[in-house]
Amino acid sequence: xxxxxxxxxxxxxxxxxxxxxxxxxxxxxxxxxx
Length: 34
Hints:
Mean pLDDT: 96
Shape: flat
Oligomer: single chain
Order of helices and strands: HH
Radius of gyration: 10 Å
Strand content: under 5%
């Protein structure tokens, strides 16, 4: 089993806590998440 890459599960986690895709993109553009 390998370790996850940096940011590999970011989208999954953020959608699980209720963020929509628009907000996730905003956070990525701002450099707040990978």
